[in-house]
Structures are given as structure tokens and as C-alpha cells.
Amino acid sequence: MMRKLAAAAVVWLAAACATEGHLSHEVLYCCGPKGPPLATYELTLVSVPAFLAPALRDSLVAALAARGLKPSEHNPDAAISVTFVADYSASERPLTRDGFSDPLSVGGPRKFDARVTLEVRRASDGATVLRGVLSREHRESVGEYGHERGREQIRDGFEQLLQRLPVAPRA
After folding, report:
1. What is the pLDDT of residue 11?
2. Quick check: 149 and 18 in contact, CB under 8 A?
3. According to DSSP H, which parts of 19-145 are helical?
4. Is residue 60 part of a domain?
């Protein structure tokens, strides 16, 4: 019985160590000066790596649709931007790429904080309506694509950030 408990504890501990950190969300600013409620938007991704763009874009578009907002290329009510920053501690600086090999295969896993800033501005006057941040501590290794497993958490994070966003009533 003790062996089974010890084995279960080891498996649980190994899984906990391999799991990425909790996705946190924080609204930094809401809800801007009074203005007409938002119904449409235009989306811009800033400094988002190509491999991460689909997961962030799809998750945000789904969260915006859940709030009743629709994309529009012509005269949108809101200009929405998503900015990505990977913050490495001094001892975990990103490895340089020499063009021949994956730097992670040489240097091993690297720890960093991923930070996604969401900013919603009213298109008519440029006033900031909402600014919020999603963040998570990551350990990257060769061949890992945690952003694919984390799509649901990313969407949930965006939904949390957008809860207080003033939107037009649905027709």
C-alpha cells in the first residue's frame, strides 16, 4: 500500500512540475471616457510570434463574439491591439540562433514570463476604453507547443478581461 501511495505521489509531483504556471489576468484600466457602446472592431497583433498568432487571435475573436462584438474593416467602433512580450530573467536570456540548430536543443529548457497586453480604443477619438494583461510563467523545451493545449485558458482569460467592456446591446 505504501508503494502505491509513494508512486502516486511521485506521478503527481512530476505532473505538477511539468505543468506551466497559472494563467493570470488583470484589468489595468477600464472603462474610459463615456462614449457610444462598442459593436464592431478591427484587430491588430503587435510583436506576436507567428506560431502564437492563431491561438491568440482565435481565442480573442471568440471572446469578443461572446460579448456581441463583430469584426469590421470599414469604420469599426473599436481598434483592438494585442501585444506579446516574453520576459526572460537575466540568467534565462533567450538563446541566440545560429541558423543551423534549435538553440533549445543545446541549452535545455528556458524559463520566461509570457505577457499579452490587450488594449481597446474607441476608433472615433482614440480614447482608451480598456487595457488588460494576461500572463503566465513558461518553461520552453524542444518540440513543446503549450499554446495549443492552452487555447481554452487563453479564451477564458480574454473573457475575464472583457467582462467590463461596454458593448452595444445585441439586436
Report:
1. 31
2. no
3. 53-66, 103-107
4. yes
pTM: 0.73
Cell of 23: 494563467
Cell of 74: 470599414
Write the single-letter amino acid at 73. Answer: E
Give the model's confidence band at 39: pLDDT under 50 very low, under 70 low, under 90 confident, else very high: very high
CATH of the domain at 50: 3.30.160
3-state secondary structure of 122: strand
Contact of 66 with 78, CB cutoff 8 Å: no
Q: Look at the chain and report how many structural domains it folds into.
A: 1
Q: Does 167 map to a domain?
A: no
Q: Is 56 inside a domain boundary?
A: yes
Eight-state DSSP code of residue 138: E
Please state, in angstroms and rounded to a whole number, the distance separating the CA atoms of residues 40 and 46: 20
| Cα gap 126→50, rounded to integer Å | 27
Asked whether 42 and 71 are in contact (CB, 8 A), the reply is yes
β-bridge partners, 67: none
CA 96: distance to chain centroid? 24
Q: Is residue 40 in a domain?
A: yes
State how far the Cα of 60 lies from the Cα of 10, in Å rounded to an integer. 37
If phi > 0 it is left, if psi is from -120 to 50 it is alpha, else beta; for residue 126 that is left
